[in-house]
């Protein structure tokens, strides 16, 4: 796509500012195009105080999102929009602003210095603006893809929403720079899949796993750990749905919550309710890692497919559960009490299939490493045909949900299904992935994996701010590349992941030594992280590491549980060959378009209910 | 740029076919916009019989080319256009065709199967169509860049012109497929630089170096070698201009011509006039390699800048000259006689500066190699700051012309001037380079090279049809990457080229051995070509070779003549660092454009001169 030069754009935008004065549109007359009742099923607070609230819905047919922005206390205006990773520069924005006299609404964009410009194409369409008892309500809509290169393309996966508050009037839109405003970001999955909600069994019961009216610490980040247990003699049940319970008033503080089942190997677990990083936390709680339920901001209830449920309770499973709540408290609010948690809906009438969770991607091993100062380094983990051939039932499995996972430098994650060497479909993809926003996402369409299929999981990392290589591992400063896929029927295969063959990595260090003379000692007796730490990261050593990961045989973990492998030879396996790639979706945008004249809309904000 | 889907395009094109019937434009009325007298200074025959002749001119101000296509015997129509490398598929075309009733002219394109479609934007504008005693003359124009993604972008350097002859009427344009036609290609430099022609000295004399009325062999390719000599006692002169002499009727057969001076080390050279590959050719003629003049199809006279001339004659230079004429005779025409050659214009009044020729790029060495089955592998040769610092005069040199050179797999060549690590300007660039069309090209703008500057020459190769690595060398199946730059004032520096450091290449072979186990023997006692021949070309060995060439130190040839180096340490030199790249020229095309309705023009071909 070609972007007009700033001067053309500025001229167009100035022209727009002038004509707008004559362009009074009575937006109230457009009300009829607002969607019908309960029109905005999804909701997030944008700011930590919750004074800006976004609701939205998604029309797959029209490929359009309708937004409602509720501004509790309008000052001189507000801006809202989207950007690649939540920055206020190079953002796609709608701006409501006043010059002190009139109030305007316009599709705008910010440049790399945060300076705002009116967009030459007005793709956000204002449908209604009115004062309500809760505040100013703005309803507007936008296509997923506006075909305007200045606009954000709304894709599946994470979307970084941004907002800003205008405290005073601005004579023109171009006088606004986002750097001078109170701004922030919020991550959501905007394009929720439209899946029919399965009916719940008549004998559905509920169980609430909640924090016991705790005091939220007045600090930026708290992970709260709370141990609870199933009733004595609780038999095997199927979880068929779960939903968040968020204490009223804390909507902007509760960032995500997960319920884990503890390991069956221990008879009992100690009681505990406190920060997960507390010195007082019993070590045994680290054995409570089997995910039962997970929720993150903006998500709604999670329904299992009608034919499957997640087994819990009964013989061979632990009675102990760990609830983990992530409180995100940037304003360091003190004294707020909270009883948030998750409500499990379960049935004793077991469904036809047990659901299972399988781990795809990379083994947690330092042999997979990312050089420092890379903006987009890709690591790839494989679940090979040999493993799926051995471990999957003849009719295959059906993946219905997925949770992507990396540590701090992860920027994109994707899993692709490969059959007979051909990429068939995307299992899950997030091109705006953030490690700070990991939720279990229902897939738009279930993906069936047959015995002999290959699953390729690739993660893209940004290590621009690192000085040393980032190696794979459990530590928060180490990296992971994982896709937890939720599927049925459950199989014994819990983990289908890979690493590069360690022997080939030794050859790499040997080569680094040979090519760099006596200066470097990546001594063979040193550990892999130590060896990576001494590599001089010139272009050759970077390129060769990349080439190695794209070529060397792999070591497979095709495991029943994290320690028990399926029988077979799993070392020095050939890298799966991919002979044909999925085509990028072709854009619906025309090669050339009418340049519609730029304008913004003068808004009449009527009082009352009209 | 986005291309509309074929269905949209087809619909538009069908629409065009319908409306055209009502769109009778009297093209004769447009005559006034045809350019003034001698309007088409450049000329090439398109087909081997010369029955299609193209003339053209270039307006740098309007960034437009005016074409005149002369069709000696019009059958049912003709097509003409341009494509990336001369293929008739994916070509940008103008088509003159008849449905038996009316004759049409339209801007069209061919898809990857050769099927012709009317273009949704008509960017070729017909200015005049009339019958003349020589045949049908069509005059039309086109901007260099039409902003239509279906159109060819006319750039500096080689343009591959294509043509086709329609033998019978077609009911619609879409019924034409180029695969069923008599077609062909011709290479030219379309955008000749508009440089004022320097005045010739009053005492200019001419000397014609021509073949002696020879019989052109009835075979596809002949390189004819003809030895001639300067008059006895011919003193030092300056060549100030030279021009082609092409025997009338042979315009389509004479492909290129060069005049070489023989080496001064030999007192005398034997007489010879015959094919250069003849067994009868005396071996000593291989010592006649110093270029004095070179011409290729479509080129006009070559003028030296007013302040410089190319010295020949006099003490210390050979009296013997070798003329080489390349006859391209695809129809294997027999019995054609030829006396083509080059007319040198020279003066005894020596100009202020001697002109010189310097060789930039890669040393002819097998250490630089291209893996097989590569579509665009790049090799780069350097003329380093250390060499220019030592060898260039304090005020630098001025490059005014350039001849690019590779062997058969070369596809692009570019030389960039780098100063203080920053790319400053392009010396010469050809993105549609063909080894079959090597001409000396005047630069649009002289390039001054200062002591301490770096000259970076990169060649892009296509080895898709090769099974083994292609190594550097003199052989026609080996490769070169050379830019012969013509400059003044002449210096001692004849050759400023590089190769990768051979020690680092040895490490590469060592690494290939280590990574491929016992299977491969790239034995150290083998020659470099032998070692390259045994490399298994997996992705790793390709990637690492590419990484090596982009990283390893270089060995410099900073030479006075091909065997004598300037004094200094030239081995294991650091690769010049480039900290900032030249920006790609930004397109003038708007981000979005009006979609003008598609149509072609009904043509009235009047008789006579009107």
TrEMBL record, chains A, B:
Record carries keyword Acyltransferase: no
Required cofactor names: Cu(2+)
GO cellular component terms given for this protein: chromaffin granule lumen; chromaffin granule membrane; extracellular space
Catalytic activity: dopamine + 2 L-ascorbate + O2 = (R)-noradrenaline + 2 monodehydro-L-ascorbate radical + H2O
Family matches, as SMART domains: DoH
Enzyme class of the recorded protein, top EC level: oxidoreductase
Assembly information from the UniProt record: Homotetramer; composed of two disulfide-linked dimers.
Listed name of the protein: Dopamine beta-hydroxylase
Organism: Acinonyx jubatus
Source organism phylogeny: Eukaryota, Metazoa, Chordata, Craniata, Vertebrata
């Amino acid at each position: 796509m070609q972007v007009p030069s700033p001067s053309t754009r500025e001229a167009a935008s100035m022209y727009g500012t002038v004509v707008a004065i004559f362009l009074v549109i009575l937006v109230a007359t457009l009300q009829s195009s607002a969607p019908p009742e309960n029109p905005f099923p999804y909701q997030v607070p944008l700011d930590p105080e919750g004074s800006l609230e976004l609701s939205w819905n998604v029309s797959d047919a029209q490929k359009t999102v309708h937004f409602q922005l509720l501004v509790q206390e309008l000052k001189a205006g507000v801006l809202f929009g989207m950007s690649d990773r939540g920055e206020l520069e190079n953002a796609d924005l709608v701006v409501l602003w006043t010059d002190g006299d009139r109030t305007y609404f316009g599709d705008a964009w910010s440049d790399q210095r945060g300076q705002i410009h009116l967009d030459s194409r007005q793709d956000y369409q204002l449908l209604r603006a009115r004062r309500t008892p809760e505040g100013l309500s703005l309803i507007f809509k936008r296509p997923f893809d506006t075909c305007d290169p200045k606009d954000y393309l709304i894709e599946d996966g994470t979307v970084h929403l941004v907002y800003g508050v205008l405290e005073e009037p601005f004579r023109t839109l171009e006088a606004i720079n986002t750097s001078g405003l109170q701004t922030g970001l919020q991550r959501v999955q905007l394009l929720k899949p439209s899946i029919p909600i399965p009916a719940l069994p008549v004998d559905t019961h509920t169980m609430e796993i909640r924090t016991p009216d705790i005091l939220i610490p007045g600090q930026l980040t708290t992970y709260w750990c709370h141990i609870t247990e199933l009733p004595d003699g609780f038999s095997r049940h199927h979880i068929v749905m779960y939903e968040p319970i968020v204490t009223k008033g804390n909507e902007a503080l509760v960032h995500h919550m997960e319920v884990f089942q503890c390991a069956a190997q221990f008879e009992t677990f100690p009681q505990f309710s406190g920060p997960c990083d507390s010195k007082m936390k019993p070590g045994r709680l680290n054995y409570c890692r089997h995910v039962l339920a997970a929720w993150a901001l903006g998500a709604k209830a999670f329904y299992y497919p009608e034919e499957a449920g997640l087994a819990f309770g009964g013989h061979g499973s632990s009675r102990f559960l760990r609830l983990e709540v992530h409180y995100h408290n940037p304003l360091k609010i003190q004294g707020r009490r909270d009883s948030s948690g998750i409500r499990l809906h379960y049935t004793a009438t077991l469904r036809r299939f047990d659901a299972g969770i399988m781990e795809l991607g990379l083994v947690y091993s330092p042999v997979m490493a990312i050089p420092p100062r890379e903006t987009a380094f890709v690591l790839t983990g494989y679940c090979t045909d040999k493993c799926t051939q051995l471990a999957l039932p003849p009719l295959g499995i059906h993946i219905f949900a997925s949770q992507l996972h990396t540590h701090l430098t992860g920027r994109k994650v994707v899993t692709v299904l490969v059959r007979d060497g051909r990429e068939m479909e995307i299992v899950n993809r997030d091109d705006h992935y953030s490690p700070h926003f990991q939720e279990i996402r229902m897939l738009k369409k279930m993906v069936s994996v047959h015995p002999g299929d290959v699953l390729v999981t690739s993660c893209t990392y940004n290590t621009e701010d690192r000085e040393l290589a980032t190696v794979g591992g459990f530590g928060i400063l180490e990296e992971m590349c994982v896709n937890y896929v939720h599927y049925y029927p459950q199989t014994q295969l819990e983990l289908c992941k890979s690493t590069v063959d360690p022997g080939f990595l030794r050859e790499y260090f040997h080569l680094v030594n040979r090519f760099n003379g006596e200066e470097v000692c990546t001594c063979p007796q040193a550990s892999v992280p130590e060896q990576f730490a001494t590599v001089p990261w010139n272009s050759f050593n970077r390129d060769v590491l990349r080439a190695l990961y794209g070529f060397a045989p792999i070591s497979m973990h095709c495991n029943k549980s994290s320690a028990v492998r399926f029988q077979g030879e799993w070392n020095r396996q050939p890298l799966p060959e991919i002979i044909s790639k999925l085509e990028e979706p072709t854009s619906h945008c025309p090669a050339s378009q009418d340049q519609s004249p730029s304008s913004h809309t003068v808004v009449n904000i009527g009082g009352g209910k009209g």
